[in-house]
Amino acid sequence: MDQPAPQLRRDSFAPLLASVALILIPVGVLALAAYRYESRLLAIGALAQVVGSVLFVRSRYAWRPPTSSLVICLYIIALGWVWFATHESADWFARLTRGLLLLIAVGLLVMHDMTRTGLEPRRRARVLCSRLLSRTRWPRSCEEYAFLPEVWGLRDAVREDPTLAFGLFDDPRPEVHLAALTALQERSYWRWDEAAVVLGMAKKTAHPEVRAAAVRAVATADNIDVSLGIIEYLKDPTWEVRAAACESLLAGGPRRWAVARGGVRAVLADPTFLADGPLPGAAGKLSAIAVCDLTAWAIEPPPLSERTARTLLDHFETVLLEKTDPALASELGRQVTDQETPPLLRVELANLLRKLNLLPPDLLDRMTDPDQPSPIRLIAVEAMLDLDATDPAALDVLRGLGRQPNRETALAIARILQQYCQIDFGLPTSGLTPKLAAEVAQRVNRWASGKGSGALSQGHDRGSNDGRSPFEMMEVIDDEDALGGIAAPTLPASVPGINAQLKPRAG
Predict the structure, then answer these.
(1) For residue 117, how many other CB atoms are within 10 A of its CB?
(2) For residues 198 and 215, what is the distance between their CA atoms, to the nearest angstrom?
(3) Rounded to an integer, what distance in angstroms lies between the CA atom of residue 333 and that of residue 319?
């Protein structure tokens, strides 16, 4: 198998080394001539060439228009210094020096015109395409195709004219197609007819790798018809192709989202693609209009609400970690306590902010208000007890929630008290049965109602002062929803205390 990394490094530095060599050749020739003839005039000319070379030494492609015309001037100037200093000399070195400078200047002028007219890129593209067609060993993964020396050179050759690589599409081998499409992925501008050829290639092939590469190649095409063509691959049978289509659509920004939003919504709402999870490539790249649409979709029935919420969470987490939007944390905190935010999204945003330690004291105080849903208040209480296990405000909130006749809330309270306050409610780590869940809910209700003994601030609960067992059977009513409009069966697993293995009671 070919080793791509050394090839990439060599091809990356080759243009820079060639530029430096072209610029320094006149300086070296003048310096040698000044040393041979001990000429002060040539020495001054060499210093002048050094000053002129400094202006071009930073150019990576010195022989290309328009920079190459200035480099040719350096050779003409050097030829003039040598001519005035040695035109009366019959020495072979003087003739060789003048001829060498003149020959290189003429050669650069020819290459300048060939590059300017497009003949040189076409010649180079034909050579590279011939090498690809004769290649018999190919990389094992699609990512390694970008490191092939032929693909690396072809990428630069087709930057202005992509049709130079279209001839590779006539070859029946998918490896050749993948190499050509990989070389086309760096283009910043596409005409409609050029992008149509690439999308047509994706429709004709049966290989998902080629379809994915074709969709990524036209990601920068700013055309409505191209966007509509990419939308068709959002429901491709292969996940890699669907991911490539989604990434290409998101790369177009708000303008492409306005065209693609209907197709994206249809895919998110399709149960067939529920296992895909959040939108691939959406983390940190969603535009403002895309965030607004996804937020509105989070109130829709599953699976649309679930996938949109996960997409938004991945996007917000990436932005918060990269710190590209300093005001995002405060905006998400406002959405957590806003009644207009979809309930499921409020809970997930609260968990995200707690995970990243972005819950300030004022937000925690607002999250514990009685008008907030129980999951929001539980998340805030857990964050407060994580800082201080004897926080009286957090314990008061738990007592208020514990008096509500809701089993899921009671289980969440039991878990929090066991974890942070070391109060044993008999809640197991796994294998929770409906009968045991009812018993734990009764114990929490008795503790919250003050029927159990022991001061909670001391972290103990050891019996009952009224002579009765704290584990007496007590009717628990689950009909009243204390979760702020979130049905218990649809709660995300991240809500504190919710056990996914808990079976619903009959009746």
Answers:
(1) 11
(2) 8
(3) 15
